[in-house]
Task: structure prediction
Amino acid sequence: MHSDAERMSIQKKAQKLLHMFAESLKKVTLPRKKTLTDELSGFRNEQERDVHAQTGFRERMFANAPKKNKDNILAEKKLW
Result:
């Protein structure tokens, strides 16, 4: 086992390493990602929507719906 003096020395070295690591992390900059909090009240800006993702949306929704009529998707209400 280590003596008390050796333990104190190891502890001081470990603290110094952690402090140096923390100081190094302060210098790191990462690209900022857009989050929901960046947008007003969590709503998306309709002017920035992806037009390509919207193409054919209605047709895809109706194609995937198990029950539908001409203009509506038929779904259960509050049965879950």
In short: The two ends are 63 Å apart (CA to CA).
